Each structure stands twice: as structure tokens, then as C-alpha cells.
Amino acid sequence: MAHRIAFLGFVALAVCASLSLAADPANLQDFCVADASGNTRMNGMACKNPAMVQASDFAFSGLHIPGNTSNSVGSRVTPVAVTQIPGLNTLGISMVRIDYAPWGINSLHTHPRSLEVGFVTSNPENRHITKILKKGDVFVFPVGLIHYQRNIGYGNVVAIAALSSQNPGVITIANTVFGSKPDINTDLLAKAFQVDKSVVWQLQTKF
User: What is the 3-state secondary structure (H, E, C) of 69-101?
Assistant: First the structure.
């Protein structure tokens, strides 16, 4: 069966004003291939010796392989970030393939498709902006806002997402709030969500 494909663009726009700028306008070397074995701690990963760089540092194979969606949410994310392609280091970009079974979801999350997509604006408006995407459509999630995707069709869906970070990470809201180790205090969560503590306990047992 042919997959429906939707393209998502994750665009982050930042405007900075300053009396003086000390940053370089561009990289000062051809590349900085990530050295996973390096012990240096920095914002990013240390550079591999350029003489040791191989073509495989800039390549990834497997994005054509469907992800296994036999799980509780009915979706599977295949990342292509700096961990998979060391040559992405310092380039500030990555991508993912997301497979959805019928009615599968990519749950509410942030990064620190017919597909239904949506995001919620910040306080106090908390406006829910949503759209149904069809084959070939593009949708932008503003940086930092909670967003989701759900396959509302009866066939499998594949989405390709571009992210404005070489290692974007994922914070799934439900897992973070109710599945933290150790647990967040139940009184705090009950008050924050305006529910009884028994509801919080039940949710914590699920995550």
C-alpha cells in the first residue's frame, strides 16, 4: 500500500539585539564531525580529527524502512540527528521519519498528517491551532510550543520532519509529568491540574 506523505517544517526564528556581537558569522572549518569518544564537555560534541573523517560520518541508511508502530501510541519515530550522522555536529539541523498506524499519535511533546496536527500557544491565551494535512502539505510548529500529530485516516502515514537543531531531543509531556523518577509530589500535581490526588496516583501508575 502506498504511504501518504506529509512534510513538517519545524522553523525556529530568533531575533537578537545587542550593542556588540562577538560570534563568528560562519564556521571556521569545513566541518566538525562529532567525536563520540571524546571526553570534552561542551555545547555540542567535540570534533573528530579531520584526518580520521570518513564518508560514513556524513551518511545514514535506513530512512526508507517503515518503523514498527506496534506500541501503545501507534507510531514510531526514526531520528536522523548528530548521533546517527556525526557530520551534523555544529550544523544546527536534523530530521526524523515518523510512521503512524491508523489512529496512531505522536503525543503532546516539545523539542528542547490525512494527518491532524496542532499546537497550543503560550499563556494566557492557550489557543489551540490545528489543521488536517494531506499528501504533500507542509506545516510549521513554532519553536518551544507544545504540539502533536495524529493519523485520523485508515491507512498508514509517513511524515518527514525537519528540526532546527542537530540534537533536538524530545520531552513528552505526559511521561515527564506523570512518569518522573522520583515522582513529582501528588499534592502539587493535584493542585496544578485541579483534580483529586487519586487521579494523579492512577496516572502515575501508568507511566
Answer: CCCCCCEEEEEECCCCCHHHCCCCCEEEEEEEC
Q: Which three cell numbers stand for residue 65?
A: 524502512
For residue 112, say if its preceding peptide bond is cis, omega within 30 degrees of 0. no
- Partners of 161 in beta bridges: 8, 96
Query: What is the tens place of the pLDDT at every residue in 12-42?
Result: 333 333 333 444 446 667 778 888 887 766 6
Asked if residue 197 has pLDDT above 90, the reply is: yes
Sheet holding 128-133, edge to edge: 128-133, 115-120, 147-151, 105-110, 171-172
116 is in an annotated binding site: yes
Whether residue 113 contacts residue 157, with contact meaning beta carbons closer than 8 Å, is answered with: yes
Which residue from 53, 49, 10, 15 is spatially nearest to 149, judged by alpha carbons? 10
Is 125 within any annotated ligand binding site?
no
| Look-up of cell digits 562577538 | 22
Give the number of other Cβ atoms within 10 Å of residue 41's Cβ: 7
Total-model pTM:
0.61
Tell me which residue of 58, 79, 55 sits closest to 67, measured CA to CA. Answer: 79
What is the distance between the alpha carbons of residues 45 and 130, in angstroms, rounded to a whole number?
36
